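> forwarded from #structure-qc
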């Protein structure tokens, strides 16, 4: 398994930093890009043309557009364009309702509570 491009969507700079440190240590991830809002992520996806990211890590609790709104926009506009892209929610939320709501989206393949680890990503991607 090789992931050429991972997109991180999180409004917290410290979270992005820590996720980036973890991703840099995972040998099967070649590169990543981080954005701080769902709107930025949508603009990035629009610029991808024919090849989207292999994996999107999205936080739930963000201002302006939260993770749920992003996932709805993604499913409405990009899921058919990038059918191989997998979304994983990465959040500090411990609410079971957040987890069930997130996993109801077809593109969402997993739900990880922070902190991110290589083992957590592997477990989800190997399903």
């Amino acid at each position: 398994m090789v992931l050429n491009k991972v997109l991180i969507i999180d409004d917290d700079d410290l979270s992005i930093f820590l996720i980036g440190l973890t991703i840099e240590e995972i040998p099967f991830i070649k590169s990543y890009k981080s954005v701080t809002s769902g709107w930025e992520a949508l603009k990035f996806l629009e610029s991808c043309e024919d090849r989207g990211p292999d994996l999107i890590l999205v936080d739930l609790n963000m201002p302006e557009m939260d993770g749920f709104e992003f996932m709805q926009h993604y499913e409405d506009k990009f899921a058919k364009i990038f059918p191989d892209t997998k979304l994983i929610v990465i959040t500090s939320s411990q609410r079971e309702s957040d987890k069930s709501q997130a996993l109801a989206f077809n593109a969402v393949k997993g739900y990880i509570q922070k902190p991110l680890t290589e083992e957590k990503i592997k477990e989800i991607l190997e399903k």
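QC bot note: Residues 13-24 form the longest helix (12 residues). The helical segments are 13-24, 38-47, 67-78, 96-103, 118-125.
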